[in-house]
Design goal:
Blueprint: E1 8-11, E2 18-21, E3 69-72, E4 86-87, E5 95-96, E6 100-106, H1 120-137, E7 143-150, E8 162-168, H2 173-189, H3 193-204, E9 208-211, E10 215-218, E11 229-233, H4 245-266, E12 272-277, E13 292-296, H5 312-315, E14 318-320, H6 324-332
Parallel strand pairs: 2-14
Antiparallel strand pairs: 1-2, 3-6, 4-5, 6-8, 7-8, 7-12, 9-10, 10-11, 11-13, 12-13
Helix pairs in contact: 1-4
Bound molecules: 5,6-dihydrouridine-5'-monophosphate and zinc ion (ZN).
Zinc ion (ZN) is lined by residues 45, 48, 50-51, 111, 160.
């Protein structure tokens, strides 16, 4: 096999899933769907239910917040009062109650900003908010999934900069898979899986997109989405709450640079889903865990073409056309100053 040109399989050690890599297919003709660019937004939208003072579906009004703002999701997918027991009228028909809570995290009072364009000091406030929320909720729930859907393409219901968290009494599938695989790795190798992986990537260099003294962002060897990245601390941190002041400041810096590169790639806000994975709960039995964020963006060849996970992907296994190394090189080559850094907003704010 000649890497990377011959079609080959790459293994994701965090999940045990494979991805089929078939480089060179991105040049095929495309008469299919084109993604329109999102409209430019005003800095304040009186109709927006996430803006300061905005009215939500519940009839409640948001305070005139100036930094970040958190509220319980009015359409929560899990609720604290659910009874956790199981029923199984037949062994093939098992159901288990899933108590939990869902919150919406507004990143900024400005309707028109995104993490990619916020100053590092404001991204730092979001980093601290993630930390506080995980700290509070992981005392009550087994797992806290923090995430952001950015852009209509990823199903975001509103362009106002915001993320979500869902805290659950159960360990969701992705976290459970990663838990098991990292545990097994530590037992056989004595170094946490992602600490060893960060070391491999730092020595190789071809998949690094951005790095700083505390953090590293790479297009992982096993990436599925065209410009998927994995953000990892360089030192051992099992969960978000392990991060100290210096690591949090450094994370804000890395995120700003990474997200600016994404937007600069096609000179448009880059849609993605991103979220954090860390050791569940609060303490104990978690040496094998290494905190990390996944960023999964759906864009492919250009600003207007998205990657569809259909057909072979739904029925057989994940597949990608662009090699991880080429994706990393293209992202790395972008400036880390956002292309709209000095542009006026729609309403001159
Ligand atoms: P997404 O854009 O990622 O869907 O997040 C927005 C969330 O905001 C969504 O989960 C909630 C939706 O349930 N929401 C409220 O809680 N109150 C509202 O008034 C509208 C939307
Ligand atoms: Zn808004």
């Amino acid at each position: 096999m000649r890497l990377p040109d011959d079609p080959h399989l790459r293994l994701n050690p965090l999940t045990g899933r494979s991805v089929l890599v078939s480089q060179g297919r991105t040049t095929r003709p495309w008469l299919g769907r084109q993604e329109p660019p999102p409209p430019i937004r005003p800095s304040y939208d009186p109709q927006c239910y996430l803006c300061p003072g905005g009215e939500r579906a519940s009839g409640e009004r948001n305070p005139r917040y100036e930094g970040t703002f958190v509220f319980t999701n009015d359409f929560a997918a899990v609720r604290p009062d659910t009874v956790p027991g199981s029923t199984a009228p037949h062994p093939l028909l098992r159901a288990t109650g899933a108590p939990g809570t869902c919150r919406v995290l507004c990143f900024s009072p400005r309707h028109d900003l995104d993490l990619a364009q916020m100053p590092v000091s404001e991204i730092r406030r979001v980093v601290d908010l993630w930390g506080e929320q995980i700290d509070e909720l992981s005392r009550r729930y087994r797992y806290v999934q923090v995430f952001e859907n950015r852009g209509e393409e990823m199903g975001a219901s509103n362009p106002h900069p915001h993320g979500q968290l869902w805290a659950t009494a159960h360990l969701p599938d992705e976290a459970a898979l990663e838990d098991g695989r990292q545990r097994a790795w530590l037992e056989s190798s004595r170094t946490p899986l992602l600490l060893e992986y960060a070391d491999v990537e730092l020595r190789d260099g071809s998949r690094i997109v951005v790095e700083n003294p505390y953090w590293l962002a790479v297009v992982p060897f096993w990436a599925v989405w065209p410009f998927e990245t994995l953000v990892m601390p360089r030192g051992h941190a099992r969960r978000f709450t392990d991060l100290g002041d210096a690591e949090r400041g450094s994370l804000a810096d890395l995120l700003r640079r990474l997200l600016a590169k994404y937007d600069n790639l096609f000179r448009r806000p880059f849609p993605y889903s991103m979220g954090w994975h860390g050791a569940p709960g609060h303490v104990g039995d978690d040496e094998h865990w290494q905190l990390h964020a996944h960023i999964y963006p759906p864009l492919l060849r250009s600003a207007t073409n998205r990657k569809f996970m259909v057909g072979y992907e739904m029925l057989a296994e994940a597949q990608r056309d662009l090699s991880a190394e080429e994706a990393a090189e293209r992202l790395r080559a972008q400036s880390d100053v956002h292309f709209l850094a000095d542009a006026p907003t729609a309403d001159g704010a």
